[in-house]
Sequence to fold (423 residues):
Amino acid sequence: MDTILIKPQRRLLAAISFLFLVLTSFNQAFAEADGAKLFKQNCAVCHSLGDNKITGPGLKGVAARVPADPWLFNWIKNNKEVIKSGDAYAKKILAEYNGADMSTFTHLTDDEINALVAFVKNPPVEVKTTTPTDEAKGPKGATEEGVNPLAILIGVIAFLIIIIGVLRGVTHSLKNIQNEKQGLPEEEAVGPWDEIKNWIVTHKTTTAVIILIILGGLLTEGWYALKGIGVYEGYQPVQPIAFSHKIHAGDNAINCQYCHSGVEKSKTAGIPSVNVCMNCHKGISSGPTTGTEEIAKIYEAAGFDPKSGEYTKPQKPIQWIKVHNLQDFVYFSHQQHVKVGKQDCANCHGDVKTMTVAKQVSPLTMGWCIDCHRKTEVPGMKDNPYYESLHKKLAEKYKGLPKEEQVITVAKMGGIDCGRCHY
Ligand code: HEC
Ligand code: HEC
Ligand code: HEC
Ligand code: HEC
Ligand code: HEC
Ligand code: HEC
Fold:
């Protein structure tokens, strides 16, 4: 036996190690993302990785200033315990931040906390590319998760083709090893293109079906793009900054009212000013899908220079495009519906927490308003003193009716009188 591997065996080895490489690199990508991802989900609302204070301190060089391990672990897991134990360093930072509250993370596993400790000790170098933004490009690419489902499909198919190719290589090599043992001649390897050609020739119907599916997908995408024009339900304009509700209200669980502060006290919900964005974005200069590009537009609008950390230019308000547009002759109040009527945002706006781009999901027609007023019972009717006498009167009026019709709906309170909604 000589030291050189025989050809088919070598090919087999190459194929297997390629497969192994692909799988491990996938694995690694996921493992590495962990600490960073956990940080974004749980900590980035209050901490930057640089020097900037948000609610809590900037975490640059934090490992050097806190007490030795396992202090970081204990603090991140449950800072209240550390504070209770009378820890001197905890007392010091608490005083520095006027006792501002850091959340506890007892719901995370020890592995997750360890990933966080490793991440804050050694965060990746932040790529500070606050390049002038490419105006022409706009936030287009960022719609719906930033990735087109069709692209994912094509990616998956390509991946499968590679795997199939590799596996075929493996069987081919195995066969040759066997042939060799039996003293048969080595089979010629067939090139990948020839294989595909052969496959298409022998699988005409399947090929036709695959082509039809891809064409169908492209056509429906085009159809939806056209349909969006001029129809308001599903209206989803491209905004001047690729603001994502999914990232803010979903992943980072920021309360709707933090930004739409009018919902409980006025007719309109209100769109936050750029100052509200800066409360957090002074410290957060890059995002998970758009990097620094979109956040740079906030700095531009705020007249903020991220290098010096100062406001050097005048503010220009961000020109958000209105998604919902009720006709002027209709009266609608958020306070009435959210505070008094106890209606959840989602009843009218859908699951905003999952929207990458804000979208109108309800038709906002008269029929839609009236339909809900007919069906919805006025909440708190029974125990609200304001309604007590009214409730008695109405209860008297509807006494004779079947049980389900005794429910006091908005409509029964006059919620479908023309004058309530039309001036
Ligand atoms: C709600 C805001 C908030 C969140 C969320 C938060 N922190 Fe904090 N963190 C603070 C505040 C405020 C302090 C300063 C001490 C104090 O007042 O409690 C602090 C202090 C710290 C310190 C000590 C920093 C120093 O300079 O000594 C570390 C480390 C830390 N946090 C890590 C984390 C990690 C990791 C997470 C996510 C798992 C996290 N924090 C989530 C608000 C927060
Ligand atoms: C971090 C700030 C922030 C948070 C938190 C937030 N929003 Fe928004 N919201 C905005 C901004 C900015 C816009 C305007 C840009 C756009 O339409 O995407 C907006 C737009 C909207 C619109 C469309 C308004 C229009 O033009 O008609 C609705 C509806 C909405 N938000 C509902 C919600 C709901 C419901 C929540 C909570 C689940 C929420 N928002 C949380 C900042 C926020
Ligand atoms: C309460 C804190 C907070 C406020 C207020 C806030 N953001 Fe954010 N923003 C975040 C966090 C956290 C991230 C995610 C950072 C990350 O995951 O790396 C983020 C990310 C972003 C991104 C990057 C998204 C991506 O896909 O890469 C943009 C753009 C953005 N915010 C715009 C805004 C705008 C515009 C406003 C004001 C209307 C605003 N933000 C207000 C906390 C906030
Ligand atoms: C998801 C259900 C729902 C939808 C949709 C809805 N409403 Fe309402 N509305 C309510 C509830 C509940 C109340 C009762 C609030 C209260 O207790 O005063 C109410 C009350 C009102 C009132 C006050 C009525 C009164 O008797 O004082 C007005 C005006 C009104 N709605 C207008 C509208 C308009 C205009 C629309 C459509 C653009 C609309 N509503 C859509 C649930 C809804
Ligand atoms: C009963 C239905 C209903 C509920 C509940 C509701 N909205 Fe609205 N919302 C509307 C309608 C209708 C409009 C359009 C108003 C207009 O054009 O004058 C609107 C517009 C908006 C706008 C943009 C224009 C503005 O008023 O500033 C925002 C932002 C918004 N809603 C956020 C919210 C949030 C956040 C909640 C929950 C706290 C909520 N809405 C609950 C029906 C509703
Ligand atoms: C709960 C609120 C509500 C009540 C009550 C209500 N409307 Fe409306 N009405 C609307 C809304 C919202 C629109 C706007 C619809 C649109 O833009 O498609 C509208 C539109 C209209 C229009 C214009 C139609 C059009 O297609 O543009 C007329 C006319 C009208 N209403 C008459 C009435 C009359 C008459 C009554 C009493 C019988 C009444 N409305 C009661 C909410 C209401």
